[in-house]
Amino acid sequence: MIDLHTHTNNSDGTDTPHALINKALSEGITVLGVTDHDTTSGWQDAIAARRAHLSLVLGAEISCLTDDGVAVHMLGLLFDGENSLMQTMLEESRDSRLPRMRRMTEMLTADGIDISLEEVFAAMPEGATLGRPHLADALVAKGHVASRDEAFTDLLHNDSKYYVTHIAPTPEDAIKVIREAGGVAVIAHPFATRRGQTLSAMSFPSLIAAGLNGVEVDHRDHSSVERDQLRGLARDFGLVVTGASDYHGTGKLNSIGENHTDPAEWARLESMANARRVVTE
Q1: Domains and CATH numbers, the chain
Q2: Contact 189, 73 (CB under 8 A)
Q3: 239/8 Cα distance (integer angstroms)
Q4: pLDDT of amino acid 197
Q5: Nearest to 188 by CA among 165, 164, 161, 220
Q6: In the structure, what pLDDT confidence band is assigned to residue 46 with cuts at 50, 70 and 90?
Q7: How far is the CA of 199 from the CAs of 66, 88, 138, 219, in angstroms?
Q8: pTM for the whole thing?
Q9: CA–CA dist 2, 236 (Å, integer)
Q10: pLDDT above 70: residue 196
C-alpha cells in the first residue's frame, strides 16, 4: 500500500517520525511519503527509524498562494534535500508564519476569544513548523473549543474573519523550484471545497506549464464529484493520479492508508525525478 502524504510532529502532526513509521508498518504501508509543512527537518529521524519492508519517499508540503490569494498546498517529493533554492523557499515560508500567527491571536483576543502567542508556542512541539493546528490545540487547551476539527470549522478555516495569509510562493514558482531540485510536484487536495476557496480547472494549464507532475485525487476532503473532475483533468493533461491519507496523528480524523496510490501511477511518478531517491536501505 502506498501513502504519499503524511505529517509528523516536525510540522503539525502529533506522531514522531519513529511513531509514524511504526503506525505505517502496522497498517501494511509499503511506501510512505513523509511530507511535513515547509520543512525537511524530520527526514533524518525518519531514515533512522525506517525498517525492512518500508520504503520512504521524503518530501515536503509547501504552502503557496495564487496571485489572487487562494491558498494552495504543493507536495514536493524526491527532491535533493541539500538544494539551496529549495531550502531557501522553505525557510522563507517558515519565517512568515510568526507574524501571521501573532495577528491571528490578536484578532481572536479582540473578539473575546482570549489566546496568546505564548500559549500557541506551548502547544507546539519543539522544532515544529508553526501553523494553525497549533493555534487550534491552544484553543482546545483554553477550553474555547472541544477539538482541532471544531476549531477549524468554527474559527480557523480559510474563509474565517480570523484567517491571515502569509508570504508564500505561487504554486507555479514552487513547482519550478521542486523540479529544479530534481523532484516531482503533486498538487495536494486542489478541489477540497470544505477547506474554503479552491483552484479552478482553468488554473491547471499554468501549473502544467510550470512542470506539474501529478494531482492528489483520492483525499478525504474531495467529494466523489470532485474526484471525478480531477481524474478527468489528470487524463486530459497526462498527470499522475495519486491518493493519500494526509495523516496527522491524533490531530485530525484522517487514518493512515485510508486513501492510497496505485503502484503503476507511483512508478510513473518516481520515474519523473532526476535521480532515484526512495530510501530503501
Answers
A1: 2-95+167-270 (3.20.20.140), 97-156 (1.10.150.650)
A2: yes
A3: 27
A4: 62
A5: 220
A6: very high
A7: 9, 26, 30, 16
A8: 0.85
A9: 24
A10: no
